[in-house]
Amino acid sequence: MDPEVETFPPYPIRGVRARYFHQTSCPGDFADVTVDFEPWEEGLTFEVVGSATVEDHFRRDLPGFRAALVEGIREELAERVTDVPVALAVVLRHIRVHEVDSRDASFRMAGRVAVREALDRLQGPPPRPKRRRRP
């Protein structure tokens, strides 16, 4: 890839924590991950750092949860990053799994949340509403 061409991400975005909780009824949803978005070759690469921490007391389907996380990242990138090529390595630093409420859909949503958080860091948070003065 030509170094002059702008890509996503333009620089490393580290320590992106994405949490997805939805506990209003059964089944619930729970996913908690921390990832880094690193500039890489064109496309999307997923890595698990050797020192990654895993909070999973029951050793559930971690490979399936990781695949769902990547799927959510890909979906959100396809919707939100349309003006520049994606050249990204996603590095998993931490994953937390709930014994009952974690499922693939939870981690797919956490992947989407991670992309939103990374984009917020690049573009800045949305503007806050202004308070009205009392007369």
From TrEMBL:
It comes from Actinoallomurus spadix. Gene3D superfamilies: 3.30.230.10. This is Translation elongation factor EFG/EF2 domain-containing protein. It holds the Pfam family EFG_IV. It comes from the Bacteria. Residues 5-123 form the Translation elongation factor EFG/EF2 domain. The keyword Acetylation does not apply. The keyword Lipoprotein does not apply. Keywords: GTP-binding, Nucleotide-binding.
